[in-house]
Structure formats: C-alpha cells, structure tokens
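Q: I have 119 residues here and want to know how they pack in 3D. Can you give me a structure?
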Amino acid sequence: SKAVAGYLQMRLQDYQHEVFAVLFLNNSNKIKRFEIISKGGLTSTVADPRIIFKLALENNASNLILCHNHPSGKLEPSQSDISLTEKIKSAATHLDMRVLDHVIVSTNGYYSFADEGLI
C-alpha cells in the first residue's frame, strides 16, 4: 500500500478538489491503466460503479485499486467511502475481479482500507 499511495499522491497532488480514480490491474497486479472517474467539490465526489466496470472490462482488468484524495488533509474514510467500497467490491466478485484496496491520499499521508482490514 505504501508504494501505491506514493504513486497516487504524486498523481493527485495538484487537485484542490476531490477526485476519485481507479488503478486497473492485470492478473499479475501490474498497472494497465490509471483513470480519474470523477471530479467533485472540496468535500466530495460521486463515483459511478457502472463507469468503473465498463473501463475494467474494456481494459481486461483482473483487479482494481480504488483511490481518492481528501484535499482537507483528513485521512479517515467517511461512511459513504466505506459504503461505496463495499458496493464496488461486491459487484466485482460477479465479474471475477477483485478490489485489492481503496487508498485515500492527502498531503498528510494515506489511508489504506486493506491495511486497516476493511477489504
């Protein structure tokens, strides 16, 4: 998670508003594509699972890492972050895909759902 968080912090550091992105991975967990799914306001953004899975199928992804930034610097996930993660994780199983992590990044560090036992 530390290496992924460093990569994501670099990719998302210039955004002053919240963005939700996905790393689409092959079966060996190599990055096939990085895509920003949605851009929101200062405190939230909406990610549509249908868009995520459309891109996953187009890129022959086996695994996903969800990610978003918190411009406020706060690292703790909101209840909506947790709910969305569960929704996407559940849907992924029906397509023989796995959600490996959901990483929240900010200038203060990162939060990994996998490291915290939430995935």
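Q: Anything worth noting?
A: The chain is about 30% helix and 30% strand. Residues 79-94 form the longest helix (16 residues).
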